[in-house]
Amino acid sequence: MLGRMLLTASRSDRLRDFVATAPVTRPVVDRFVAGEGLPDALAAVRDLTDAGLDVTIDHLGEDITDPAQAEANRDAYLALLAAAAPLGAGPRVEVSVKLSAFGQALGPDGHELALANVRPVCAAAAKAGTTVTLDMEDHTTVDSTLAILDELRKDYPGTGAVLQSYLFRTEEDCRRLAVEGSRVRLVKGAYREPASVAHQDRREVDLAYVRCLKILMAGGGHPMVATHDPRLIAITLDLALRNERVPGSYEFQMLYGIREPEQRRLAEAGEQVRVYVPFGTDWYGYFTRRLAERPANVAFFLRSFLPA
Ligand code: FAD
Fold it and tell me: What residue ranges do the domains of the chain occupy?
């Protein structure tokens, strides 16, 4: 219930203004976001890669309202890739993009606009020896995002995409994408979706995740198992054995600031672990989705408004 209210709040401009300007918000946001500027992000990346973890960097932004913002977001990714290149980490440092930040929702031309804006980012990533993963947003964007993925993979075959186990359609999408060279990041799903398209019960979402995982781990692609759920991590390790997959032929992914000891434990055990590192000023939507995932986070956030 609280989670659903927060997911609705994640799209409220009035709440965004209130939360973003409240002075007490910052320390709570810092738990999930690696800072507002590129130097902050690069410092976090350096710490993580030094600790044996791989990263995917997200320049925060979504749901933009005019094409100039889409171009600014594209340019921010080009600057990010140029700045990350001297770290020399190649595929250990990749980027994640939200196509709504590249213009996908801007009317009938949004699809083409997003494709045109993301293409140079894929080209710059390829030049830096790394890849781009397309985040998945609400269910209305899935067809467009997967069509853009198909287009991009013709020139940049390492481009990956996210699939969300809560959507009824996802098992079918996994079957289509479990092929040689493909990179699929499997998540449970973080948006408020109607019962007509998505499982509402957490147990059903988890069971669907396992069905999707089985398809991806048995297939020819590179599964990116993005979850903090200990049961799903254990099932992945079991499926890796059954499918004779070695670490690196699949990877675990977790979010910056969440279950950090587990990130390090898996990496020390020889698993490939990639941390999703968000940075930038437009953190409100990302932040409220993290609150919605866990009631304890809301309590932590609300406590910060109380006098010390
Ligand atoms: P849960 O059952 O939610 O959590 C399992 C355990 O993990 C919890 O008990 C808790 O210990 C810990 N945990 C989980 N979330 C939190 C939190 N916010 N704060 C503190 N502890 C927590 N969703 C999309 O819809 N589209 C995307 O493109 C997308 N990209 C993602 C990329 C990565 C790398 C990851 C890890 C997640 C992404 N997500 C995305 C979010 C995802 O859909 C889930 O909402 C999120 O991962 C929580 O689900 P879970 O699998 O960790 O399981």
Answer: 1-32+283-308, 50-280
Q: Which tens digits make up the pLDDT trace of 240-292? A: 999 999 999 999 999 999 999 999 999 999 999 999 999 999 888 898 888 88
Q: In this predicted model, what pLDDT tens digit does every residue of 194-208 receive, in sequence order?
A: 999 999 999 999 999
Does the pLDDT of residue 18 top 90, yes or no? Answer: no
**Is there a binding annotation on residue 290?**
yes
Check: CB of residue 135 under 8 Å from CB of residue 105.
no
Least Cα distance to 209 among 162, 248, 244 occurs for 162
Is 200 known as a binding-site position? Answer: no
Pocket test for ligand 1, best of 251, 293, 294, 298 (most atoms within 8 A of CB): 293
- Prediction pTM value: 0.94
- Find the residues whose C-beta lies inside 6 A of ligand 1: 135-136, 162, 164, 185, 187-191, 226-229, 253-255, 258-259, 276, 290, 293-294, 297
Burial 120-136, CB ≥16 within 10 A → b, else e: ebbbbbbebebbbbbbb
Is residue 289 annotated as involved in ligand binding? yes
Atom of ligand 1 nearest to the CA of 227: 51
Question: What CATH topology corresponds to 50-280?
Answer: TIM Barrel (3.20.20)
